[in-house]
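Bug: token stream looks shifted between consecutive jobs. Job 1:
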Amino acid sequence: MLLSVFQRRKPEVQPLFAPHTLTMSETVQWLASKCLIDPMPYVQRHVRGDRGDLDEAEHDDDQFSQDQYVPRSSYFQITPHLCLVVTTRVDQERFTTVVRLREERAAS
């Protein structure tokens, strides 16, 4: 029993990048304001390199995003009908991260 108190915690994964600008879609803002979702844990997972719930085809297509200047997207299935998409782009050497629902159009 005492042993469990002194067990080592796994080291936290360091972020791959730090978003300079974080934007949420109106729908995500509304859901967060009503405490229906908390997008921040998913943003934190995204910046640490967690790609979320990508299926094999999406994962293969997304391999090119390993280049830091190509947009990176992570997909997190919150409920069977609600998928959060976190995308980061590099604009003039600044990271811009957008959080939206999968059914919302991505900003061009």
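Job 2, same session, no restart:
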Amino acid sequence: MTTSTPTTPVSPTLVIIRGNSGSGKTTAAREARRLGRGAALVEQDYFRRTVLREHDSAHIQPVAPVFITATVRTALDPGCTPLAGRGAPPERM
């Protein structure tokens, strides 16, 4: 007869990786994702520039922040750990 040990569910964690362009954010996130199941890579620049075709501009009301937030929340619901990466503006580094 085998017995099973009950496991405590682990709450999902949001991991945000920020840094200068070319600093290895995406590489680090992809490597972290390979360590185990349950990680969702949310590349903010890809969503913003490629999916939404949105670029930095003071003349438009951006859709990307709402879209990316909804994507991350959707990944958190089933217990995934979203790995969100975005380059920081140079003045914030």
